[in-house]
User: Fold this.
Amino acid sequence: MIQLTRLNGQPFVLNSDLVKSIERSPDTVMTLLNGEKIVVRETSEQIVELIVEFRRRILEGLSLGTCGFVPPVNGGNPESPKDSSSKGT
Assistant:
């Protein structure tokens, strides 16, 4: 989710996965996947940076094992033993 500003100064939060395209025509016009168009104060470059930063934070969270993601044990192989010291006892 990214926070943007409408031309009237009203802030709003947008699911960045819904953005289909961004146009500069003096104002910045975003077209969403559902065809809706939104005019915002931010430039296309600023919007792209907000989206990249948001996705970077998500991916960093996944790599750190946060956001509910737990990496698989033993490479995800359920057949491999978890503790080799108990093998053969």
